[in-house]
């Protein structure tokens, strides 16, 4: 195991903290202090000795299985209505159709269901449990977020090999390269996280960096697995020197970020990337995943722009061929750009290529946020956000601003309070950007775009 050294915290990042004056007259819409974090004793009272099933065998469900085991519980099985999932297993736990388990006499007294999905899908499952099976939320079923309401993010790599047009990395004045988080420091961070959030089940190992560049990424993933925590990665897949070791270590999910299926489309917005290399690396990823039993969920996160819609059928076919999941998303500019645009009326030149190709223009996206300004921030649960140098940031979508010098030196409760009333949150909420990049808001639009693109092929 290598022993990378983490540089000292930059001098300008201190623990001096002041509540932003904006919140003297406006309640924060990003307040995670309202969520209860369950203890093991809380969970015992909730389950009451019943067989526990997890509805959803995706990344979140798999992660929560590990968290249950870490806390001394076991899942009897997964539930999923997808015929392709029924009968399969994950870490010795079988996937059943809900009818097999829930359509039995007094099921609610024998079984407790934890749903491992979010947003619209969660609401659908809640309705099914209540209307078809007679289950009652809080008594015979609950969402896993109730036990572990936060989604921690740890940046294990403070640098990236691309300068994508939609990302602050494209402008060095917004976000400079950092260094790697060492395994030794990651170990200290993750053990504190487990103490503070007993049922933490998933940690994303990325924000602005390329996690596969970290030579100790496999060790980090193995450590997470040993603690019962699923690892989520996101990669541009241009550099795969550590990929096979990472896959052997067994991350729960790898997301591949794409904005095209050819040199003419991909390299316009994934600036600095090479399509020929990415294409070869996707085939390599498929073979490596197959080598290790297709244990890791591989998701192709396809950013939909004006210039790449004609390639949607090709990416759909590629996903079928490689056993990847297709996840289309509405391309946007990340938060620092709309904030700069709203405060100065201008965008950095580096963002122009992405801005000119958006399916929904920038002003309309901003208007859509303003329509929802009274709603809570869509990223309230994403906390804590820990940088490669162990400092803590208020948000995973703005370039660096700190709220604490070291995660190891401050309690989670204090961190959440600081984040709630930070200057970053104030600037964001003033402009309704706490609703920015709400992919759920555009899900129907995206589905129609994909459907039409496939139909026209």
How would you concisely characterize the structure shown here?
With about 450 residues, the protein is α/β, with parallel strands linked by helices. The chain contains 18 helices and 14 strands.
Using the alpha-carbon principal axes, give the shape.
globular
Stated plainly, the CATH topology of the largest domain is called TIM Barrel
Q: Residue ranges: pLDDT <50 for 5 or more in a row?
A: 1-14
The CATH architecture of the largest domain can be named as: Alpha-Beta Barrel
Give the tally of β-strands.
14
CATH C-level category of the largest domain: Alpha Beta
Quickly count the helices: 18
Number of domains: 2
CATH superfamily of the largest domain: Aldolase class I
Mean pLDDT across every amino acid position: 92
The side-by-side strand order for the widest beta sheet comes to 3-4-2-1-5-6
Q: What is the rounded Rg?
A: 22 Å
User: Which structural class do the helices and strands define?
Assistant: alpha/beta
* Share in β-strands: 5-15%
Q: Please summarize the sheet with the most strands.
A: 6 strands, mixed
Polypeptide structure, described:
- With 457 residues, this protein is of the alpha/beta class.
- The chain folds into 2 domains: 38-147, NAD(P)-binding Rossmann-like Domain (Rossmann fold), CATH 3.40.50.720; 153-455, Aldolase class I (TIM Barrel).
- It has 18 helices and 14 strands.
- The protein has helices at residues 40-47, 59-70, 98-102, 107-110, 119-131, 144-147, 183-196, 217-226, 243-249, 263-269, 275-291, 312-322, 336-344, 352-355, 362-371, 412-420, 423-430, 443-455; strands at residues 51-55, 75-79, 89-90, 93-96, 111-115, 141-143, 153-154, 202-204, 230-235, 253-258, 297-304, 325-330, 385-386, 392-393.
- The strands form 3 sheets. It has a 6-stranded mixed β-sheet, sandwiched between helices.
- A hairpin with a 2-residue loop joins strand 3 (89-90) and strand 4 (93-96).
- The protein starts with 39 loop residues before the first helix and ends with a helix.
- Mean pLDDT is 92; it is low at 1-14.
